[in-house]
Amino acid sequence: MELNNVKDGRVTDTQVLVVGAGPTGLALACDLARRGVHTLVVEQSDALFPGSRGKGLQPRTLEVLDDLGVVDAVIDAGGRAPVGMLWENGERRGEHDMFERPGPTEAAPYGEPWLLPQWRTQQILHGRLTELGGSVTFGTALTALTQDEDGVTAELTTGTVRAAYAVAADGGRSLVRRILGIPMTGESVDPAPMLVADVRIPALDRLNWHVFPGDGAAFLAVCPLPGTEDFQVTGRFSDGVPDISPEGVRELIAARTHLTADDVAEVRWSSDFRPRAALAERFREGRIFLAGDAAHVHSPAGGQGLNTSVQDAYNLGWKLGQVLLHGAPEELLDSYEEERLPVAAQMLGLSTRIHRGEARRGEATMQLGLGYRGGPLAAGSAGALEAGDRAPDGPLPDGRRIFDLLRGPHFTLLAVGTDAGLPSGDGAVVRCHRIDAYEPYGTGLFLVRPDGYIGWAGEDTAGLADWLRRAGAHGGLDLKRA
To answer: Which domain of life is it from (predicted)?
Structure first.
């Protein structure tokens, strides 16, 4: 597709149009930008989302953010989830940790969830996108979307855009999904409406996640947000529509805690919602993809929504890059839905069980065990791993780590504890490294995809060439010499 980038006229051509600048859209835009894919991100709001809503980043998402080059900023800006403190009749009744905290290991360097308000996560991703030469076009809404065999045409409030592909990252009420007529089915997780707000309460300590159980229907939680002076307040209502005005939020806190309305110095943001779990029937319609909340909507319990969404973007980005820049067959894009839809369904079920008290926030919520075994891009096994598994981290003799070898938009072929032959070439798309035998891998050859999962594994290179051709990653390599 020829790009002309006509801005003074009414048409601006791009390779990928991303609708929505939430965590999903920004993560995808960062991944595409570092690959050199021309991307237009449009956001109907005039600024980034202002609230804390998705405040928990799981260990696997931290690994994604490590690869995208922002994990240090995320760690510096956030903090550990505080231990819960139960209150009753204005008195502390004891601490209760809501999370299992296994701690970091050599293979998994991020050992627990990290709290960071969503608005700050988006600021960090937006800053990274700017560093990579990308941008967001704010105050621009989608009004219509059509496609043909050659591309997608989007009508925006600022004009017409022609793109090779489009990605709906426009949230649970996705206009793109509705235009496409893709059904979204699910269930109400809890019939009770909920309120969420960001407030400042100088009179309340920030050492705990304060929980006021009430009678169930009157549940209220107040969580300090690291790196800010704010608390996130979540409240459950038996019926009706929560009053999300500043006065309503103050009255709610005063009614359910030992605090007074005057103790709430500021209400910075508030919203209401009804917890539900819903999954789109499909994640792809021709040249248009659904990602994030546009494809799946979670209960906030367990912190799976934002994390699953960012990983949608991480899965899709490298595939779009391979098709657009490296001649990978169009069929590679089919694997996005084939891999991500089952994962989203699994995480939806987990979120619902946690919301209903049927499961605890633990190893499963950290998402390190998720993978694509048996999927369309998983071929072979070696040592301790099967294709589709997450590639573990680990130390190297020179002081670097395995993640340092993987970081970037390339594929990585690891020869672990083996003298098996490796292909030669320029390494622009596939980089080859030999390392010593390492228990989480065992020994063998492991082709790590750009999103950190094993695509192919074996004792020698038989079958590697076919896998690389399917992914458009064989250019510049002499596979005959392997």
So the answer is: Bacteria
Residue 334, phi then psi, degrees to nearest 5: -60, -30
**d(C-alpha 418, C-alpha 423), whole Å:** 14
Q: What is the DSSP string of 336-373?
A: HHHHHHHHHHHHHHHHHHHHTTSS-BSGGGG-TT---T
Structure tokens at 401: 């780590």
Closest C-alpha to 254, from 208, 193, 316, 199: 199
CATH architecture for residues 194-274: 2-Layer Sandwich (3.30)
Report whether pLDDT(477) > 90. Answer: no
- At the topology level, CATH places domain 379-481 in Glutaredoxin (3.40.30)
Q: Are 34 and 157 in contact (CB under 8 A)?
A: no
What are the boundaries of each domain within the chain? 11-78+116-184+277-366, 194-274, 379-481
Burial 465-474 (b: 16+ CB within 10 A, else e): bebbebbbbb
Long-range contact set of residues 432-438: C-beta below 8 Å, sequence gap at least 24: 433/405, 435/396, 435/402, 436/397, 438/394, 438/402
pLDDT of the residue at 299: 76
Q: Answer whether 11-78+116-184+277-366 and 194-274 agree in fold.
A: no
pLDDT tens string 134-168 = 999 999 999 999 999 999 999 999 999 999 999 99
CB 393 within 8 A of CB 401: yes
Question: Residues 400-415: what's their mean pLDDT?
Answer: 97
Q: Please tell me the distance from the alpha carbon of residue 447 to that of residue 406, in angstroms, as a whole number.
A: 10
Give the three-state DSSP class for 197: strand
- Partners of 235 in beta bridges: 195, 220
Q: Which of 72, 17, 356 is nearest to 190 (CA)?
A: 356
In 3-state terms, what secondary structure has residue 471?
coil
Prediction pTM value: 0.95
Q: Where are the alpha helices (DSSP H) in 8-58?
A: 23-35
